[in-house]
Write a structure and sequence with these properties.
The protein is mostly helical and about 300 residues long. It has 14 helices and no strands.
Length: about 300
């Protein structure tokens, strides 16, 4: 999953038409992210650390192709010429690299519920970071949502401590990633392209290290597996492009609501596809998170109606 970041401003379009035209790419992006665990089943024989390396390697060329197609090279070059932007993207690349590794490792290790919970927590963590770092003020309903989420985390700490670090790592790393990207005037796609370029030397080093190991590289051993690994660039860049399109065309509050589609899909995959047992502590945590999400979305819609009035 990616942090919210929009590209060039859209042409003036009626509000309802803009929102409707952005709905399909938004649902498409979050549906792809939600079903990502099914893709990871296909590469479960690849060590998670190695797969992250290949994901970075194959994401960069695809991003460059899309940047060329969308004629965003001027924006890309402008970001490369700014030391402040590069420093921020260096930090964001480390954060998204951590996020990708924890997510991939957790899915391959069977901790599907923990990843779902982490991305349910993410919007609430974003709200909290906005208050602590950016000086934004929370409404009473937002504080209530954060408090309920805190109780959910406490329940996990008491009854499911072994998976708590996964949920918190995903939620916090993605929240900090979004916070850093929020401070940088660069679009989603050019930003991902630069982040992938920054991570590329490390990714090549990881791939080379596995190639030199006794078991050898996972890439090139079997044709179908190599094709699936190359496809990792597609499942990274394509939903991001759809998200960027949606973010330009619809209200951010509506987009914020749709983002819960991905962790919901992951939750049901864990329940019905991966057939993972749902421990009482995890079930109670999910119930509380769903309540917190309900309060959070209620606050978004209330503010939207108030602004419309």
């Amino acid at each position: 999953m990616r942090a919210p970041s929009t590209d060039a401003a859209p042409a003036p379009v009626a509000g309802h038409q803009r929102s409707a035209s952005g709905l399909a790419p938004a649902i498409g992006a979050y549906t792809i992210w939600g079903f990502l665990p099914l893709y990871l089943i296909l590469v479960q024989s690849v060590p998670p650390f190695e797969f992250v390396g290949w994901r970075i390697i194959w994401t960069l060329p695809l991003c460059l192709l899309i940047v060329a197609f969308r004629r965003q090279f001027p924006e890309l070059l402008a970001a490369l010429k700014s030391p402040r932007t590069l420093l921020a993207l260096l930090a964001s690349s480390v954060l998204i690299g951590i996020n990708w590794f924890v997510y991939i490792w957790a899915i391959m290790a069977g901790e599907v519920y923990a990843t779902s919970l982490g991305y349910y927590l993410n919007p609430l963590i974003n709200v909290l970071l906005g208050t602590l770092v950016l000086g934004e003020r929370l409404s009473k309903r937002q504080w209530l949502a954060v408090a309920i989420a805190g109780v959910a985390v406490a329940l996990l700490a008491a009854g499911a401590l072994t998976s708590l670090w996964i949920s918190l790592s995903l939620g916090i790393s993605f929240g900090l990633y979004g916070l850093v990207r929020k401070q940088v005037a660069v679009g989603s796609l050019p930003g991902l392209t630069i982040e992938s370029a920054i991570l590329l030397p490390a990714a090549i080093g990881i791939a080379a290290w596995y190639a030199a190991s006794p078991l050898g590289s996972s890439f090139g051993q079997e044709a179908w597996l190599s094709v699936v690994i190359v496809f990792s660039g597609v499942v990274t860049a394509v939903p991001l492009l759809m998200f960027a399109l949606a973010a330009r065309r619809m209200d951010y509050s509506t987009l914020g609501f749709i983002q819960y589609l991905a962790p919901t899909i992951v939750f049901f995959l864990g329940l019905f596809v991966f057939e993972q047992p749902l421990a009482p502590a995890k079930l109670a945590s999910f119930v509380l998170i769903w309540i917190a999400v309900g309060v959070f979305v209620w606050d978004l819609w209330a503010k939207r109606k108030s602004a419309s009035a």
